[in-house]
């Protein structure tokens, strides 16, 4: 049996607790120390799982860096990470891959560059970039196909898969209304990716209309040459709403609502590690371009 990959993790960005949860998926966690996590939802969904049975055995998070040494040590205790480093580049030479678990896209190039140049595989948290220009600057660093893995983990959510039963219920899929709380910059990708995976290639985009809403939200309407259309709504930081896709068809409609984020995170991390182990491409750069292009259309001022 192959030894687990040694992984480093980089955090944190505002409002993002992924260093706690992603590391716990590989390492398990200490219930007492995890109670100090400032994101109570993380302890809530971890507590519903069985450890060590639910550990992802393909890797282990062995190193952590955040911009705050005391925060790094807190996460390390909670998620059983062995080594805290004072500089993120100190991980190089000691790990097999890196998890860039920050969702501040404007800083991704800075943090990713040393690892990409060192030929290490890297998982870059969503969204990898907010513009095609920013995306291209990161991909231009790539040393080999598949080195860069990036996604919204929610594209792996079982709730967002189009089953035969759903298709039978709705008939021919005509449009999707996708909704998320919080900001366009950080959360729209969570509904754009699963939407694009559901609809496949509808051809050329004929029309887009963009409207800003309060507290960093945006609504984007899209029409493709096939006649399919979609609305993508990030409702802003002061709104409580589920992450959901409403599928509207020729016969009926159905809501797909995210309920199990742990399973989605685990599936995405599993895909990343399997890609590293088998040296293949798990996230298609052309698909990532489509995602980032829609992100850019939804907030052209970014």
Unreliable residue runs:
none
Instruction: State the assembly state of the protein chains.
Output: single chain
> What is the structural class?
alpha/beta
Number of strands: 12
Largest sheet: 6 strands, parallel
Order of SSEs = EHHHEHEEHEHEHEHEEEEEHH
The helix fraction, in percent, is 25-40%
Alpha-carbon distance between the termini?
47 Å
Overall mean pLDDT: 95
Rg over CA atoms: 19 Å
Spatial ordering of strands, largest sheet: 3-2-1-4-5-6
- Assess the beta-strand content as a share of residues: 15-25%
Globular, elongated, flat, extended or rod-shaped: what is the shape?
globular
Description:
The chain is of the alpha/beta class. It has ten helices and twelve strands. It has helices spanning about 20-25, 30-35, 40-45, 70-80, 110-115, 130-140, 165-170, 185-200, 260-280, 285-300; strands at about 5-10, 60-65, 85, 95-100, 120-125, 150, 175-180, 205-215, 215-225, 230-235, 245-250, 255. Strands 3-2-1-4-5-6 form a six-stranded parallel beta sheet, with helices on both faces. The longest helix has 18 residues, at about 260-280. The N and C termini lie far apart (about 45 Å).
List the helices and strands and how they pair.
Elements: E1 5-10, H1 18-27, H2 31-34, H3 40-47, E2 59-65, H4 69-79, E3 83-84, E4 97-100, H5 108-117, E5 122-125, H6 132-139, E6 148-151, H7 164-170, E7 173-180, H8 184-199, E8 205-213, E9 217-224, E10 229-234, E11 244-249, E12 253-257, H9 261-278, H10 285-298
Parallel strand pairs: 1-2, 1-4, 2-3, 4-5, 5-6, 7-10
Antiparallel strand pairs: 7-11, 8-9, 9-10, 11-12
């Amino acid at each position: 049996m192959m030894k687990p990959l040694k992984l480093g993790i980089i955090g944190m960005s505002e409002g993002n607790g992924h260093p706690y949860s992603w590391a716990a998926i590989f390492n398990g966690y200490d219930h007492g120390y995890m109670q100090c996590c400032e994101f109570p939802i993380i302890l809530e969904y971890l507590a519903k799982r069985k450890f060590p049975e639910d550990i992802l055995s393909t890797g282990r998070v062995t190193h952590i860096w955040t911009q705050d040494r005391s925060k790094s040590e807190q996460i390390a205790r909670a998620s059983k990470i062995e080594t805290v480093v004072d500089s993120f580049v100190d991980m190089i030479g000691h790990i097999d891959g890196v998890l860039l678990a920050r969702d501040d896209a404007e800083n991704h190039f800075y943090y990713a560059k040393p690892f990409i140049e060192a030929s290490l595989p890297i998982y870059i948290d969503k969204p990898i970039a907010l513009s095609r220009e920013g995306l291209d600057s990161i991909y231009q660093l790539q040393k080999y196909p598949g080195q860069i893995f990036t996604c919204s983990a929610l594209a792996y959510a079982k709730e967002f898969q189009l089953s035969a039963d759903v298709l039978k219920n709705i008939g021919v899929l005509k449009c999707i209304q996708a909704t998320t709380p919080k900001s366009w910059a950080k959360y729209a990708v969570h509904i754009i990716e699963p939407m694009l995976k559901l609809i496949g290639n509808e051809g050329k985009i004929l029309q887009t209309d963009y409207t800003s809403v309060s507290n960093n939200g945006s609504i984007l309407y899209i029409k493709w040459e096939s006649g399919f259309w979609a609305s993508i709504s990030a409702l802003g930081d002061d709104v409580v709403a589920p992450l959901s896709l409403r599928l509207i068809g020729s016969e009926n409609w159905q809501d797909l609502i995210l309920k199990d984020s742990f399973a989605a995170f685990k599936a995405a991390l599993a895909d990343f590690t399997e890609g590293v182990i088998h040296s293949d491409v798990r996230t298609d750069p052309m698909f990532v371009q489509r995602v980032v292009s829609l992100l850019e259309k939804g907030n052209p001022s970014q």
